[in-house]
Every structure is written in structure tokens, then in C-alpha cells.
Amino acid sequence: MDLRKFLYKGDDLGVTFKEDGTTKIKVWAPNVKNIILNLYSKYDSQRLIFSKNMTKLEEDVWSIILKERETGYLNLDKFFYDFKVKHFDGTEKYALDPYAKSMASFSPDEDIDNIGRGAIISMDSEEAGKKPTSIGISNLGSPTDMVAYEIHIRDFTIGINMKDAGTFKAFYEYDKGIEHLKELGVTHVQFLPIQNYFTVDEGNKKYNELGSSYNWGYDPHNYFTPEGWLAADAENPYGRIKELRNLVNKLHENGIGVIMDVVYNHTYNWDIFENLTPGSYYRMFGESISGGTGAGPTLESRNPMVRKLIIDSIRFFIDEYGIDGFRFDLMGFIDIETMIEIRKAVGDNIILQGEAWNFTDLPINEAPVKGHIANYPHRINLAVFNDSTRDSYLGKIHEKGFVQGNYDFPITDICRAGIIGNIIDYYNKSVSIDLYHRFAYSPNETLQYLSIHDGFTLWDKINLSYDGTMIERARLVKFSLGMLFTSQGKVIIQGGTEIGLTKPLGDRQQPKDPESDRAHTSEFINFDDDIGNITHYHENSYSSSDFVNKIRWRRKENALFKGINDYCSGLIKLRRCANAFRYSTSENIKKGLKFILVDDFNAYRVIAYTLDNTIEYNYGAGIERIPYSKFLVVHNASFETLNLKDEEFLEGMDILVDSGNAGITPIKDTEIVVKDGSLAITGNTTVVLGVRE
Questions:
Q1: What SS3 state is found at 246?
Q2: CA 263, CA 521: separation in Å to the nearest integer?
Q3: Which tens digits make up the pLDDT trace of 478-523?
Q4: Strand 628-636 and strand 606-612: pairing?
Q5: How far is the C-alpha of 65 from the C-alpha of 17, rounded, in Å?
């Protein structure tokens, strides 16, 4: 069936409350024989109280108007519904409305009819809470001013002794946590998926130290409903709506934007859409549905009605929840035209970023993947997660990177590509020219990171790859952060990185962990004083216990981790107060960033460059520019103090970053020595020097 001709342009799919008191429900479903609307009690989502055939209209839209004289109820607010669909092959399936704005509390089981039920609600109801207004990038001086903080809603509070821990409600009530984010200086939080997902029991929210009733949310169920497992009240279909709105409002009140991680590339299983309308939502190869993502059936974003669903969902979360940006999971499976249409639909104020690994089931000229320069949708401010930076700075998976002293060719050259934001048209013999590492037309297309939810945390990566004491490891963590925050482009950190986030899998958790083989150890392990003698650390904890995944806030009280937190906060403040660390255009990077020491004996274990701080004046609200005309940045990956010589090393320069401290205030007590033409820099250190105006 050629679905390119199917496009319903109306904006009334799902539930609509009509002025005459009736309720209208519409659903798009080609290629089916009949649809029955089933209505369930507001007090018991399992109790069927009414059924009626829907009417097929033009453009394969099915509709029904529910009236009091038929249902026996004057007001259907908070009642539940689903569809019973008769297919042309004679089979009958239960289906969930793709446009359901809330749902009955859901628990997965083996019942083949357990597909979930939508809730009849109005987003304008007082029970839905105060509607937030999106701030987008209005709190930034420019798109590259963004410093995002990735966090799972549950992880943020599940380790705290408070009521409703692990929920939207607990997040916005945890004032100490909100204050931490403000003090750290992040501009946005990025939530792991909060759209309804399939494999968790929404009624089971208790702290779980050993089991695996946990999920990150990359198993999509419905694209309009907030996840009930993350809500203190999932029984009332307004509970999850109000709680999410309250959380967004609370963050906005504190000057912090909100980015959603969205999973439009696949669903958990094919029943979610195939039950409703076979062959209409998923990418087909002949008679087979693509499973190219490895995580579930691939959505066919090139079908106009699937593209409409995606865009309608995104617009819904902007309009109804005030969301400020979106991170696209496995973006390579969403076609380029859809990404362009999304940008058109949301305007320039909304953040868009995604995974653009060279991994897709689309023809390569239709896939937005990193390293295929001619095909990627440039010039629409769409950033990609930059694994080139992560892998060269820290090392890929189990390997060592520049930070741990691996400066074999071409590691250092790839690091320099990260320093310039991986733009394609910067010319210097010391910078890698590999197209995979030089993919960006503009720095706003580069999202720099060291760790994220999948993969080792920064602390665990250093622990597994470096043989050193806790103090020595903390030094390498600071060195890593120094490199990250002095690199061009946008920046994101994994929540908890600033206090030594760790994902330990202990002997007690191991037997029940479904991915225990993804927890690793090494000969370099040095037991973490804070968590005891645990030898294995997880790199894919999507279904691990709360013990593995939680933020360990008490680490902030440990002097070692408090030092990392203060260092990270100081780097963020320096970056935001000095435009030179985040130029907004490629032209300004080429004009303002100059590498030095590229012919020096130490050229492969030292990266050094100057930055002109007079080129741009783009600062966010409440951010004041610091009075420096020029900066000099030096990264020493060796394990020894080096004496470097260059005419740029001028006596009298302020030292703003060394191995122990970072910020906008000159450091007085430091091992760094600057004399005319000479710099003594300690090992494993980032140094930032400033020339006052």
C-alpha cells in the first residue's frame, strides 16, 4: 500500500470535548474493516460500560461522538477507552489511540490484549495544573551557550528519603536538588524519555536495590502521554499531567530550560500500531517490518501520517508542557526531510539534537548521520552527539584516550578537531581531516560530551582505565572536564558527573541484573571509598536496580567530590562569561582560535591554543562578560611537569584554571608558573591563562 497519498490535515485526532457537552474521538486507520469504540469506567479502567461502532469518514479517519443518551453519562471526563479493530483477514485486535493525551495506569503482562487504554481528559482542565510556557533558548546568549544536564527523573531523587521519591513530584519538591542545578550553572536539564513506555509496572515505585523493575524509557508505548511510573499519582489521568507541568514550571522559575529525550525511531513492539492499522506506521521491507534499530520495529517517518504524528507530538509537548528542546534517539532512522519539517514546525527558539551514528536502515542519502556531510541537514541548528570528542579525549569503550596519556597518532589530531567544534573548514596541519571527525558546518551542530546514560560514567571510565589513587583519579576527571568546557560547540554532561557519578554492580545485585555481562572490571580498579569493595561497573544500566542507577547525593559532602563539583561549576561559569570558549559561528572559530606549539617536541602530548575574546558579545540573562581580551589554553596529557616555550606565554597573565581550581577569579596559590616566553605546567592538567583588557 502506497501510504504517501494518506495525509489527514486536521488537528482533531484523539479526544475533543465539544461545546454541546458531547465527546468526539477520531483516529486515522486505513486498511481496516471496522472499529468499535470501547468505553471504560472512570473508577475502574477494566470495567467496560459502553461499546459502539465508529464511522469511517474521508481520508481513512474514523470518528464517533459520544452522547449522554447513549452512554448514560453527562460528563465523560476521566473515563477510559480503547479500540476493537476488525482487520480484513478477519482477526480482531485491541488498539490504543496513538493520540491519547493520558492513559490508565499500565502494567505489562502476557495478555495479548494488554495494549493500554487512553483517558478522556482536557488539557485545559483545572486538574491538569498550570500550563508552562516554553523558554527555548531565550536564557542563552547564543545556541552554543547551552550547557545541558542529562538526568533520569527517577534517579534524581530515588536515593533520597522523601515521599514520592523517584517521581516528577519529588523532583520539583527537592529544593536542594534544584538549587544544586542552579549553583552548578547548567542552562537546561535533559530528561531521559518521559513519554509513556511499555515495560515498567506503573504501580510499583518503591526503591529497588536488587531487582530490575526499572527502565530508561527507550521502549515507547505512546507519544503524547507522560509516563505514569514517573508520577506520584498514575491512577488519576490528570496526575501525571499536573506533576510534569509543575516540574517544568519549577525549573523555568529557576532559569533552567527543559529538553526531552524522544524515541520516534521505534516502538517497543509492533502491536502498538499494527493492531490499529496494519502496514501503516512501520518501515517495511517487502512484507517484513524493519527491526533495524535492534530495539523494536522501526517507524516509517517518510509516511506523511507518521511524520504528522511525530510533529504533532513535539508541538503538543511545547504547547502544553512548555518543553524547550528535544533529543532524538537513534536519529539516523528518522529521514532528513522529517527533521527539516520538525525544525520548520517548532521555529528557531527550540533546541534540536540527536544521535547521528552511522547506523540506519534508510538509504544513506536520506539518513541524518554523522560523517556524511552532503546528506546531513545542515543550517537548521540540529546538533549531533559527538563521539569523536568522547572517544579521543577519554578513549573508546575500554581504550585509553588523551586524558589517560594515550597520545599516539592520530588521537591528538582528533582531539584538536574536537577543540574547534569539529567544523569542516578549519585548516591546520595538526587537526584531523577525517570527515567523521570534521562533520559540522557550524559549532551549533556539535554536541560535546564525555559520558551519557549509555556507556561508562566519567568517574567509572577513569577508574577502569587508570591505575591511581582516588585523588589521582579526581585529577584526571578535572582534566577531562577542563578539555570539555574549553571546546567549541554545545555541551552536555551526564547528571551526577560533577559529584563522581558511578554505576556499581555489587555481588548482591549481579544475579538479578539482566545485563550483568555489561558490567566490567579491570586490573586498574581502585576501590571507591564511598561505596566499598565493588569491582564491577555498569556501562548499560537501562534495566538495572536503583542501587546501580541512583544519584548518590552524599558524595557532594565528600571533600574529594565536592572539589570536582566546584571545579565543574567554575568551568561552566568561565565558559558562559567568556564568549571565546563558545563562538557561535565557524567564521569566528577560524578567526579567533589559533593553535600554538604544533611543531614543538611535545606537540602530541600537549594541545595549546589562543582565543580572541573580543570577537563576540553574546551573553545570557544575568551573565556578565569577564574583562579579558585573550585567553591561552594548554592541555598537558603527560604525567610530568613540562616547561613549554612560546612567545604567547607572557608574565602577568591571570591563571583561571589549573589542576585544582577553575573559575573567573585569578588563582593565587598554584603550581603553574608563567614567565616571558615560558610556561611550567603540571601533568594531567588543563590551564587557562587570561590577558586582561
A1: helix
A2: 31
A3: 999 999 999 999 999 999 999 999 999 999 999 999 999 999 999 9
A4: antiparallel
A5: 10
Half-sphere exposure of 366 (CA within 13 A, CB side): 12
The amino acid at 144: T
Residue 360 to residue 559: CA distance in whole angstroms: 45
- The interaxial angle of helices 458-465 and 470-485, nearest 10 deg, is 130
| CB neighbour list of residue 676: distance below 8 Å, 6 or more residues apart | 649, 650, 651
Q: How far apart are CA 356 and CA 341, in angstroms?
A: 17
Q: Are 86 and 276 contacting, i.e. CB atoms less than 8 angstroms apart?
A: no
Q: Which three cell numbers stand for residue 132?
A: 508552562
pLDDT tens per residue across span 167-218 = 999 999 999 999 999 999 999 999 999 999 999 999 999 999 987 789 999 9
- How far is Cα 515 from Cα 512, in angstroms, rounded to an integer? 9
- Rg of the Cα atoms in the chain: 26
Distance separating alpha carbons of residues 108 and 298, to the nearest angstrom? 21
Q: How many other CB atoms are found less than 10 A from the CB of residue 8?
A: 17
CB 563 within 8 A of CB 556: no
What amino acid occupies position 245? R
User: Looking at the whole model, is its pTM more than 0.90?
Assistant: yes
Q: Which residue has the cell 577508574?
A: 463
Q: Is 475 helix (H, G, I), strand (E, B) or coil?
A: helix
pLDDT tens, position by position, 295-324: 999 999 999 999 999 999 999 999 999 999
The H or E element that residue 471 is part of is: helix 470-485
Give the sign of the dihedral formed by CA 449, CA 265, CA 267, CA 125. positive
Instruction: Report helix, strand or coil for 272.
Output: helix
Closest CA to 210 of 520, 519, 544: 544
Residue 24 pLDDT greater than 80, yes or no: yes
